[in-house]
Amino acid sequence: MQLDLFREIIVDNFAGGGGASTGIEMATGLSVDIAINHDPVAIAMHKANHPDTEHYCESVWDVDPKEAVKGRKVGLAWFSPDCKHFSKAKGGKPVEKKIRGLAWIAVKWAIAVKPRAIMLENVEEFKTWGPLKDGYPDESKKGKTFKSFVKALEALGYEVQFKELRACDYGAPTTRKRFFMIARCDGRPIKWPEPTHGDPDSLAVKAGKLLPWKRSAGIIDWNIGTPSIFERKKPLAKNTLLRIGRGIQKFVIEAQTPYIVENKACFIQHYYTHQGKETRASSLDEPLATIPTANRFGLVTAFLAKHYGGNYSGAGISLEEPLHTITMKDHHALVTAFLIKYYGSDIGQSLLDPLHTITTKDRFGLVTVKGQDYRIVDIGMRMLQPRELFNGNGFPSNYIIDKDYYGKTYPKTEQVARCGNAVPPPFAEALVRANLPDFCVKHNRYKPAVSY
Question: Is the N end or the C end of the chain the one with fewer CB atoms within 10 Å?
Fold first, then answer.
């Protein structure tokens, strides 16, 4: 492929599985020109989705910027250095000076090829970057290295600004909050993108100035069933059951308007016998004649439990909200409660009916939905699948996550890890559109992840 020496190029350092690159392409309609990452697994996923990009599978420090750009001017250099040694999720573990110092690569690129714009993404705690003492951040010098980093870019002729943004404000169905730094040396003003989405209850949304935040419900593949929590070969852990119980209490039993799953997504199994045979009712669209007590099966409600371990004691989140931050290990679980109409005296239902036996167990609660009483007859749970998590991070639905460029299949753990490490693409798209409109197009090849 012949190089265009007159066109500015875009470089994605720490490219990972391609979150920032995807957002940049959503804005520009073009793949980034250069992607750098030391992890061959991440590069293979990136290459599967961005085959026109020139890939460097090596440490960012081993890539010579001048040799990589081959005389071309750099319009944008994006940096997402490893954040785990800044993040509060690291807990009380020692941190590594080498990893905390990865952001200095941006200064190296600024010195070598002076990108017109530099964008850096990290966790909110990045601003506390400072010296270490015995393997831990020195509290007395918190933020000292960060200030030196900013001054180094300013000394090279860059204007520098930084801000924290939430992905849900820009169209991703996740509340993920991140620190962003923009530095530019072309004399043009730094612009922070205006939010496009907001709290559904806010005046801005009600007045039509903003779209409502995208809901967790929109990322779910409702064609996947949720196995009963009572019929597991290996019983669920006590803490898991406690979290489910708290969620059922908050989002189903006590909720004024429980989230009701659309009919096509209602799954319930192993509860009906018809003409001597077990009948599995796969959805409310099934012919009702096959379910003798179907007149009492009315609704399926759902919410998301959060299995973070440790001291987390929350009830989870409603499917009306954006998904919470996605990490390298999936902690979100879909919980469904299956409801049937409740008539109090149970008149009209045979005592031999298996459904009756289940509904009268004390462990199930009574729910009132729009003035009608229902009883919970089962609770299902499953962990969210990788595609759902990528949807939650704002990736397009046609993004390749289950195999790499060479056709090798990724295990689910690898898929989730790539997602947890990724920059939600709407972040990058919004920042590039605001600051580099000359690069941008109205439409591109990517489709929205899901409809909400």
Answer: N
